[in-house]
Design a protein that fits this description.
Length: about 130
């Protein structure tokens, strides 16, 4: 992905973060939010993802409710992926929508925060962030 597109995406992430409720942004102060172009080979292999734009986000770590009982673990992080989210911001006619890009960024961040709070994919989809 070229630098211009990366910068555009990152500005949209900033816009979305500025619009989120304070309670959500406070959580993100405790959990690093990374932005990458696409998931690593290891993540794609682990999640059985074939294409680099098939995944929008990834939660790494131990959900908050399990942290007291967990053995030492890797740091908790949320990563969102530009390629996957950009792909969802293009409609069937090939038209890009900034509004949809922002919506998908928001959904992805909230989806991964759901995992941080111990929610399953099914539970997250049930509340509209699947």
């Amino acid at each position: 992905m070229n630098q211009r597109k990366r910068n555009y995406f990152d500005k949209q992430v900033e816009h979305v973060l500025n619009k989120l409720p304070k309670s959500v942004t406070q959580m993100l102060e405790e959990i690093p939010l990374h932005v990458e172009d696409y998931p690593s080979k290891e993540i794609r292999r682990a999640k059985k993802i074939k294409y680099i734009d098939d995944l929008c986000g990834y939660f790494s770590g131990v959900p908050i409710g399990e942290q007291l009982h967990a053995q030492p673990h890797l740091p908790t992080t949320i990563t969102i992926f530009r390629y996957g989210i950009f792909a969802l911001a293009v409609n069937k006619n090939g038209e890009f929508s900034q509004k949809e890009l922002r919506r998908q960024i928001r959904i992805t961040i909230l989806h991964e925060l759901g995992h941080y709070h111990g929610m399953s994919e099914k539970e997250i989809k049930k509340i509209g962030y699947g």
